[in-house]
């Protein structure tokens, strides 16, 4: 089956891309191994099927990134809030990989592992999930020092728009597209993916109205053979 739209997660190794996808798709946080090549999940969103691509952050797989981004309707640029270099890498190394994405590609900037720095992220966003830790009262900093702040993510979002030659008034506001998440507790993970999916739907509808799309046919995609996991939901 051909997916109707494609969403790609990019970011340095160890920031938690695979963990975010597992949390969203499988509703749990489990041990991960560093991704080799890439892997995809298929998510049904209303009548549409969206492919969610996990990519490898390791330098040796860098060349594959632009291939995974080809025809992407949305790219989720992920960093680790406890690691300044991980957001620097998004601009230096990963942004250029999105040249192959759709012209109207949606961008989200995501700071993961916020459970390490902020006590409020120890609470999952959804009622049906319980954190493994006891939430502290109020939202106070934890012992781990935060290296990236919300303003840094907003500044990156604005640089992305400049790079893509997009006008701020034609795209979703930076405040709406910068997220902080915890794959460990589930904090804001559903909110992230669901916001992105909702934004991708108009693109899907447009493509469907235009006729045959340029979306990659997963059945013919050789890279899928190398995946850690390729599951359909
Ligand atoms: N505390 C905490 N740890 C996390 C979180 N997300 C991921 N981790 C841990 O960070 C490490 C890396 O997670 P992965 O999901 O494998 O990272 P990745 O971005 O997929 O890495 P590559 O596949 O190498 O590109 C693992 O030890 C995870 O358990 C989080 O939200 N909080
Ligand atoms: Mg991974």
Structure explained in plain terms:
The protein has 233 residues and is α/β, with parallel strands linked by helices. It contains six helices and seven strands. The chain has helices at residues 17-26, 65-69, 84-94, 150-163, 174-177, 189-210, and strands at 5-11, 38-45, 48-55, 74-80, 106-112, 178-180, 230-232. A seven-stranded mixed beta sheet has the order 6-5-4-1-3-2-7, with helices on both faces. Helix 3 (84-94) links the parallel strand 4 and strand 5. The chain is globular, with a radius of gyration of 17 Å. It binds guanosine-5'-triphosphate (GTP) and magnesium ion (MG). Magnesium ion is lined by residues 17-18, 32, 34-35, 54. InterPro entries: P-loop_NTPase, Rab20, Small_GTP-bd, Small_GTPase. Keywords: GTP-binding, Nucleotide-binding. Pfam families: Ras. This is Ras-related protein Rab-20. Belongs to the small GTPase superfamily. Rab family.
Short summary:
The chain is of the alpha/beta class. It contains six helices and seven strands.
Secondary structure elements and pairings:
Layout: E1 5-11, H1 17-26, E2 38-45, E3 48-55, H2 65-69, E4 74-80, H3 84-94, E5 106-112, H4 150-163, H5 174-177, E6 178-180, H6 189-210, E7 230-232
Parallel strand pairs: 1-3, 1-4, 2-7, 4-5, 5-6
Antiparallel strand pairs: 2-3
Bound molecules: guanosine-5'-triphosphate and magnesium ion.
Magnesium ion (MG) is lined by residues 17-18, 32, 34-35, 54.
Largest β sheet strand count, sense and barrel closure: 7 strands, mixed
| Count of helical regions | 6
Bound molecules: guanosine-5'-triphosphate, magnesium ion
**What portion of residues belong to β-strands?**
15-25%
State the helicity in percent bands.
25-40%
**Structural category:** alpha/beta
* Molecular shape: globular
Order of helix and strand elements from N to C terminus? EHEEHEHEHHEHE
Total number of beta strands? 7
The pLDDT mean sits at 87
- In whole angstroms, the N-to-C terminal distance is 12 Å
Order of strands in the sheet with most strands: 6-5-4-1-3-2-7
Radius of gyration: 17 Å
């Amino acid at each position: 089956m051909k997916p109707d739209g494609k969403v790609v997660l990019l970011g340095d190794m160890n920031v938690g891309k695979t963990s975010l996808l597992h949390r969203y798709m499988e509703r749990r946080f489990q041990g991960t191994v560093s991704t080799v090549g890439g892997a995809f999940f298929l998510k049904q969103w209303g009548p549409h099927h969206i492919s969610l691509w996990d990519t490898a952050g390791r330098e040796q797989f860098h060349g594959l990134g632009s291939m995974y981004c080809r025809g992407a309707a949305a790219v989720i640029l992920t960093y680790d809030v406890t690691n300044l270099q991980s957001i620097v890498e998004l601009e230096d190394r990963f942004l250029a990989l999105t040249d192959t994405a759709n012209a109207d590609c949606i961008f989200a900037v995501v700071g993961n592992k916020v459970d390490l720095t902020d006590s409020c992220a120890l609470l999952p966003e959804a009622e049906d999930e319980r954190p493994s830790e006891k939430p502290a009262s109020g939202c106070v900093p934890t012992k781990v020092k935060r290296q990236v702040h919300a303003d840094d993510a907003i500044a990156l979002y604005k640089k992305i728009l400049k790079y893509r030659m997009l006008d701020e008034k034609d795209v979703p506001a930076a405040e709406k597209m910068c997220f902080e998440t915890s794959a460990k507790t589930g904090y804001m993970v559903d909110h992230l993916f669901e916001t992105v999916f909702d934004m991708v739907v108009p693109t899907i509808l447009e493509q469907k109205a235009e006729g045959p799309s340029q979306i990659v046919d997963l059945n013919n995609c050789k890279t899928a053979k190398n995946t850690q996991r390729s599951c359909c939901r």
